[in-house]
What does this fold into?
Amino acid sequence: MKHTSFLFISCDEAKHICDKAQYHEATSWETFKLKLRYVWCRITRAYVNKNIKLTDTIKKANVTCLNSSEKQLLLQNLQQELKKQQH
Amino acid sequence: MPKHTMNPNQWIDLYSDYLFNFTISRVNDREKAKDLVQDTFFAGLKSMKNFKGEASERTWLISILKRKIIDHYRKINSNKGKAEVRVEFNTEDDEGSWLEKRVADTDYRTAEDDIVNNELGDAIYDCLSKLPEKQATVFRMKTIEGLETETICNDLNITTSNLWVIIHRARTSMAACMEKNWF
It folds into this structure.
Protein backbone atom coordinates (compact mmCIF):
# COMPACT_ATOMS: atom_id res chain seq x y z
CA MET A 1 0.00 0.00 0.00
CA LYS A 2 1.34 3.38 -1.03
CA HIS A 3 1.73 5.92 1.78
CA THR A 4 1.69 9.45 0.42
CA SER A 5 2.43 11.59 3.44
CA PHE A 6 2.03 11.99 7.17
CA LEU A 7 -1.37 13.59 6.91
CA PHE A 8 -2.64 12.91 3.43
CA ILE A 9 -3.36 9.29 2.58
CA SER A 10 -3.86 7.48 -0.70
CA CYS A 11 -7.21 6.21 -1.88
CA ASP A 12 -6.17 2.60 -1.20
CA GLU A 13 -5.09 3.49 2.30
CA ALA A 14 -8.38 5.29 2.86
CA LYS A 15 -10.28 2.16 1.80
CA HIS A 16 -8.16 0.03 4.12
CA ILE A 17 -8.85 2.34 7.07
CA CYS A 18 -12.53 2.40 6.17
CA ASP A 19 -12.63 -1.43 6.23
CA LYS A 20 -10.95 -1.47 9.64
CA ALA A 21 -13.34 1.21 10.91
CA GLN A 22 -16.30 -1.08 10.13
CA TYR A 23 -14.95 -3.41 12.83
CA HIS A 24 -13.90 -0.60 15.20
CA GLU A 25 -10.26 -1.40 14.55
CA ALA A 26 -9.12 1.93 13.10
CA THR A 27 -7.25 4.29 15.43
CA SER A 28 -8.45 7.86 16.04
CA TRP A 29 -5.57 9.19 13.98
CA GLU A 30 -6.42 6.89 11.07
CA THR A 31 -10.07 7.90 11.29
CA PHE A 32 -9.06 11.56 11.23
CA LYS A 33 -6.96 11.03 8.08
CA LEU A 34 -9.85 9.15 6.48
CA LYS A 35 -12.28 11.96 7.26
CA LEU A 36 -9.86 14.46 5.76
CA ARG A 37 -9.69 12.53 2.52
CA TYR A 38 -13.45 11.93 2.59
CA VAL A 39 -14.02 15.67 2.30
CA TRP A 40 -12.31 16.09 -1.07
CA CYS A 41 -12.09 12.62 -2.68
CA ARG A 42 -15.17 11.46 -4.57
CA ILE A 43 -13.96 7.83 -4.83
CA THR A 44 -13.26 7.62 -1.10
CA ARG A 45 -16.65 9.13 -0.35
CA ALA A 46 -18.43 6.58 -2.56
CA TYR A 47 -16.50 3.69 -1.00
CA VAL A 48 -17.12 4.86 2.58
CA ASN A 49 -20.84 5.33 1.96
CA LYS A 50 -21.23 1.90 0.38
CA ASN A 51 -19.21 0.27 3.13
CA ILE A 52 -21.27 1.88 5.88
CA LYS A 53 -24.47 0.87 4.10
CA LEU A 54 -23.27 -2.75 3.98
CA THR A 55 -22.37 -2.73 7.67
CA ASP A 56 -25.74 -1.22 8.62
CA THR A 57 -27.63 -3.73 6.48
CA ILE A 58 -25.86 -6.72 8.00
CA LYS A 59 -26.42 -5.32 11.47
CA LYS A 60 -30.10 -4.75 10.73
CA ALA A 61 -30.56 -8.27 9.34
CA ASN A 62 -29.13 -9.70 12.55
CA VAL A 63 -27.74 -12.67 10.63
CA THR A 64 -26.14 -15.49 12.51
CA CYS A 65 -24.20 -18.62 11.65
CA LEU A 66 -22.86 -21.83 13.14
CA ASN A 67 -19.49 -21.61 14.87
CA SER A 68 -16.70 -24.00 13.86
CA SER A 69 -17.31 -26.53 16.67
CA GLU A 70 -21.03 -26.68 15.86
CA LYS A 71 -20.17 -27.22 12.20
CA GLN A 72 -17.66 -29.91 13.10
CA LEU A 73 -20.29 -31.76 15.11
CA LEU A 74 -22.79 -31.46 12.29
CA LEU A 75 -20.20 -32.79 9.86
CA GLN A 76 -19.40 -35.79 12.09
CA ASN A 77 -23.09 -36.65 12.45
CA LEU A 78 -23.67 -36.31 8.73
CA GLN A 79 -20.71 -38.53 7.91
CA GLN A 80 -21.94 -41.19 10.34
CA GLU A 81 -25.37 -41.07 8.74
CA LEU A 82 -23.80 -41.24 5.29
CA LYS A 83 -21.87 -44.39 6.33
CA LYS A 84 -25.09 -45.95 7.61
CA GLN A 85 -26.72 -45.27 4.25
CA GLN A 86 -23.86 -46.89 2.39
CA HIS A 87 -24.00 -50.12 4.43
CA MET B 1 -29.30 -35.33 -18.19
CA PRO B 2 -29.82 -33.68 -14.76
CA LYS B 3 -28.73 -30.06 -14.51
CA HIS B 4 -27.59 -30.41 -10.90
CA THR B 5 -25.78 -33.17 -9.08
CA MET B 6 -25.66 -34.02 -5.42
CA ASN B 7 -22.61 -34.06 -3.19
CA PRO B 8 -23.50 -34.57 0.50
CA ASN B 9 -19.84 -34.25 1.54
CA GLN B 10 -20.01 -30.56 0.64
CA TRP B 11 -23.34 -29.83 2.31
CA ILE B 12 -21.95 -28.54 5.61
CA ASP B 13 -19.47 -26.18 3.97
CA LEU B 14 -21.85 -24.92 1.33
CA TYR B 15 -25.26 -24.81 2.94
CA SER B 16 -25.14 -25.16 6.73
CA ASP B 17 -24.87 -21.41 7.40
CA TYR B 18 -27.58 -20.51 4.94
CA LEU B 19 -29.95 -23.18 6.28
CA PHE B 20 -29.13 -22.30 9.88
CA ASN B 21 -29.81 -18.61 9.36
CA PHE B 22 -32.99 -19.45 7.48
CA THR B 23 -34.13 -21.63 10.39
CA ILE B 24 -33.14 -19.46 13.33
CA SER B 25 -34.96 -16.47 11.88
CA ARG B 26 -38.09 -18.62 11.85
CA VAL B 27 -37.86 -20.61 15.10
CA ASN B 28 -35.85 -18.20 17.33
CA ASP B 29 -34.11 -21.03 19.15
CA ARG B 30 -30.48 -21.83 18.41
CA GLU B 31 -30.57 -25.44 19.64
CA LYS B 32 -33.82 -26.19 17.83
CA ALA B 33 -32.45 -24.57 14.67
CA LYS B 34 -29.35 -26.81 14.79
CA ASP B 35 -31.55 -29.88 15.23
CA LEU B 36 -33.76 -28.89 12.32
CA VAL B 37 -30.76 -28.31 10.04
CA GLN B 38 -29.35 -31.70 11.01
CA ASP B 39 -32.73 -33.37 10.45
CA THR B 40 -32.88 -31.71 7.04
CA PHE B 41 -29.50 -33.11 6.03
CA PHE B 42 -30.49 -36.58 7.27
CA ALA B 43 -33.80 -36.43 5.40
CA GLY B 44 -31.89 -35.24 2.34
CA LEU B 45 -29.63 -38.28 2.54
CA LYS B 46 -32.58 -40.62 2.88
CA SER B 47 -34.38 -39.21 -0.13
CA MET B 48 -31.33 -38.64 -2.32
CA LYS B 49 -32.64 -41.11 -4.85
CA ASN B 50 -35.64 -38.83 -5.41
CA PHE B 51 -33.42 -35.91 -6.41
CA LYS B 52 -33.95 -35.38 -10.11
CA GLY B 53 -31.41 -32.61 -10.53
CA GLU B 54 -33.93 -30.13 -11.85
CA ALA B 55 -33.48 -27.76 -8.92
CA SER B 56 -30.22 -26.88 -7.23
CA GLU B 57 -29.13 -28.81 -4.15
CA ARG B 58 -29.77 -25.76 -1.99
CA THR B 59 -33.32 -25.25 -3.28
CA TRP B 60 -34.01 -28.92 -2.69
CA LEU B 61 -32.63 -28.81 0.87
CA ILE B 62 -34.59 -25.63 1.62
CA SER B 63 -37.82 -27.29 0.53
CA ILE B 64 -37.11 -30.15 2.97
CA LEU B 65 -36.24 -27.66 5.71
CA LYS B 66 -39.46 -25.70 5.19
CA ARG B 67 -41.45 -28.88 5.79
CA LYS B 68 -39.38 -29.59 8.91
CA ILE B 69 -40.12 -26.11 10.25
CA ILE B 70 -43.85 -26.55 9.61
CA ASP B 71 -43.73 -29.93 11.39
CA HIS B 72 -41.91 -28.30 14.31
CA TYR B 73 -44.68 -25.72 14.72
CA ARG B 74 -47.36 -28.36 14.38
CA LYS B 75 -45.69 -30.37 17.14
CA ILE B 76 -45.38 -27.60 19.65
CA ASN B 77 -48.74 -26.09 18.69
CA SER B 78 -47.08 -22.71 19.03
CA ASN B 79 -48.42 -20.11 21.41
CA LYS B 80 -46.83 -17.39 19.34
CA GLY B 81 -49.08 -14.41 18.77
CA LYS B 82 -51.23 -15.02 21.80
CA ALA B 83 -51.33 -12.19 24.30
CA GLU B 84 -49.28 -12.66 27.42
CA VAL B 85 -51.55 -12.93 30.41
CA ARG B 86 -50.45 -11.72 33.81
CA VAL B 87 -52.35 -12.66 36.93
CA GLU B 88 -52.06 -10.20 39.81
CA PHE B 89 -53.18 -10.62 43.42
CA ASN B 90 -53.73 -7.27 45.05
CA THR B 91 -54.67 -6.34 48.66
CA GLU B 92 -56.03 -8.61 51.39
CA ASP B 93 -59.57 -7.52 50.53
CA ASP B 94 -59.02 -8.45 46.97
CA GLU B 95 -57.46 -11.76 47.89
CA GLY B 96 -58.57 -14.38 45.52
CA SER B 97 -59.63 -11.90 42.93
CA TRP B 98 -57.35 -11.40 40.09
CA LEU B 99 -56.84 -9.14 37.21
CA GLU B 100 -55.99 -10.31 33.83
CA LYS B 101 -53.90 -7.83 31.96
CA ARG B 102 -52.82 -7.69 28.44
CA VAL B 103 -49.17 -6.84 28.65
CA ALA B 104 -47.36 -5.07 25.87
CA ASP B 105 -44.62 -7.15 24.32
CA THR B 106 -41.49 -5.00 24.56
CA ASP B 107 -39.86 -6.89 21.70
CA TYR B 108 -42.89 -6.36 19.54
CA ARG B 109 -42.25 -6.50 15.85
CA THR B 110 -44.80 -6.71 13.12
CA ALA B 111 -45.07 -9.72 10.84
CA GLU B 112 -43.94 -7.42 8.05
CA ASP B 113 -40.74 -6.54 9.97
CA ASP B 114 -40.03 -10.23 10.38
CA ILE B 115 -40.59 -10.99 6.71
CA VAL B 116 -38.33 -8.15 5.59
CA ASN B 117 -35.66 -9.22 8.08
CA ASN B 118 -35.86 -12.87 6.99
CA GLU B 119 -35.62 -11.89 3.34
CA LEU B 120 -32.70 -9.59 4.07
CA GLY B 121 -30.89 -12.43 5.85
CA ASP B 122 -31.55 -14.70 2.89
CA ALA B 123 -30.25 -12.04 0.47
CA ILE B 124 -27.05 -11.65 2.53
CA TYR B 125 -26.44 -15.40 2.52
CA ASP B 126 -27.21 -15.52 -1.20
CA CYS B 127 -24.48 -12.96 -1.84
CA LEU B 128 -22.13 -14.70 0.58
CA SER B 129 -22.56 -17.97 -1.30
CA LYS B 130 -21.33 -16.28 -4.48
CA LEU B 131 -17.98 -15.29 -2.93
CA PRO B 132 -14.88 -17.46 -3.36
CA GLU B 133 -14.65 -19.89 -0.45
CA LYS B 134 -11.79 -18.19 1.39
CA GLN B 135 -13.36 -14.74 1.13
CA ALA B 136 -16.69 -16.10 2.36
CA THR B 137 -15.03 -17.84 5.32
CA VAL B 138 -13.04 -14.78 6.40
CA PHE B 139 -15.99 -12.44 5.92
CA ARG B 140 -18.31 -14.73 7.86
CA MET B 141 -15.87 -15.16 10.75
CA LYS B 142 -15.10 -11.45 10.97
CA THR B 143 -18.48 -9.90 10.21
CA ILE B 144 -21.09 -12.40 11.29
CA GLU B 145 -19.34 -14.34 14.06
CA GLY B 146 -17.50 -11.16 15.16
CA LEU B 147 -14.23 -12.96 15.84
CA GLU B 148 -11.02 -11.08 16.63
CA THR B 149 -8.59 -10.48 13.77
CA GLU B 150 -5.86 -12.40 15.62
CA THR B 151 -8.11 -15.44 16.16
CA ILE B 152 -9.02 -15.62 12.47
CA CYS B 153 -5.39 -15.21 11.39
CA ASN B 154 -4.33 -18.04 13.72
CA ASP B 155 -7.21 -20.31 12.68
CA LEU B 156 -6.68 -19.82 8.96
CA ASN B 157 -2.92 -19.36 9.12
CA ILE B 158 -2.90 -16.02 7.31
CA THR B 159 -1.21 -12.70 8.08
CA THR B 160 -3.09 -9.63 9.28
CA SER B 161 -2.46 -7.76 6.04
CA ASN B 162 -3.65 -10.80 4.09
CA LEU B 163 -6.84 -10.81 6.15
CA TRP B 164 -7.57 -7.16 5.39
CA VAL B 165 -6.99 -7.70 1.66
CA ILE B 166 -9.47 -10.61 1.73
CA ILE B 167 -11.95 -8.56 3.77
CA HIS B 168 -11.66 -5.67 1.32
CA ARG B 169 -12.37 -7.92 -1.68
CA ALA B 170 -15.23 -9.63 0.12
CA ARG B 171 -16.83 -6.35 1.20
CA THR B 172 -16.55 -4.90 -2.30
CA SER B 173 -18.22 -7.97 -3.83
CA MET B 174 -20.87 -8.11 -1.09
CA ALA B 175 -21.71 -4.43 -1.52
CA ALA B 176 -22.04 -4.86 -5.30
CA CYS B 177 -24.20 -7.97 -4.90
CA MET B 178 -26.44 -6.37 -2.28
CA GLU B 179 -26.70 -3.27 -4.46
CA LYS B 180 -28.00 -5.46 -7.27
CA ASN B 181 -30.31 -7.67 -5.20
CA TRP B 182 -31.50 -5.58 -2.30
CA PHE B 183 -30.80 -1.84 -2.09
In short: Residues 42-61 of chain A form the longest helix (20 residues). Chain A has a mean pLDDT of 89. Residues 11-86 of chain A form one domain. The interface with chain B takes residues 15-16, 19-20, 22-23, 25, 50-51, 53-54, 57-58, 60-68, 70-71, 74-75, 77-78, 81-82, 85 of chain A (CB under 8 Å).
